[in-house]
Amino acid sequence: MSPGFWARLRRYYLAGLLVLAPTALTLWVVWRLFLFFDDILGRSLRARGISVVGLGFLLLNVLLLLLGWLATNLLGRRLFSIWDRVMNRVPLINKIYTTLRQIAELFLGPPREGSFRRVAIVEYPVPGSYALGFVTSTNPGEAGRRLGQRLCSVYIPKAVNPVTGYLLLVPEERVTYLDMTPEEAMKMVVSAGALVPSRAES
What's the whole-model pTM score? Predict the structure, then answer.
């Protein structure tokens, strides 16, 4: 068989993995959470001959609402602040926790200035070649003052693995903002460009 056949086979395999992995991981996490919460009350109820369909799902949603309520009041914010400090001081765990927290805030948090809320393209790594990135700050800082330019901080994520990437300080006039949302841009990055937002195709 020709090398081209194996190259196509490898590309199809990786594309299938990219489609299956996020779905399988999401379903696995939801299923494990369902079993965990279902077992909290379900075991004692079943021992009494009572069966409640969807008990785990109900408890999971009640817990999410309770955590959300706590996170929006003063006492809850203090408790979560203490929890954040504890998690950030545990070696190795702090890296995972911080990364997942930032990703969750990106997709679920309210829009705010900076914080990956603007998508743009910049010339990188060579003139005439462009990279998709997230404008994280428009504050020039010391670098901008020393260069006498207004610089933007642009995070360029690596394809498929957006947790790692590069930080570029780019003159503001060389940053081209896009209309696509951060979520659409992240899907495009994770799929290595295979999932292009429909607005970009029109």
Answer: 0.48
Selection from 168, 174, 144 nearest residue 156 by Cα: 168
Both 47 and 95 in one domain: the answer is yes
Distant-in-sequence, close-in-space partners of 140: CB < 8 Å, separation ≥ 6? 149, 150, 151
Q: Of 108, 139, 163, which marks where a domain is finished?
A: 108
CA atoms within 13 A on the CB side of 99: 10
User: 117 CB contacts (<8 Å, ≥6 apart)?
Assistant: 111, 134, 135, 182
Q: Is the same domain home to 53 and 13?
A: yes
Average pLDDT rounded to a whole number, residues 120-131: 93
How many residues are given for the chain? 202
Other C-beta atoms lying within 10 Å of the C-beta of residue 132: 20
User: Strand 176-177 vs strand 165-171: parallel, antiparallel, or unpaired?
Assistant: unpaired
Tokens of 28: 């696995």
**Among 108, 132, 163, where does a domain finish?**
108
**Two structure tokens written together for 95:** 């890296």
pLDDT tens per residue across span 57-109: 677 677 777 777 776 777 767 877 787 788 778 777 777 667 666 666 655 55
DSSP designation for 110? P
Q: Dihedral through CA 112, CA 115, CA 116, CA 120, nearest 10?
A: 80
One domain, residues 60 and 93: yes
Segments forming the whole domain that contains residue 181:
118-201
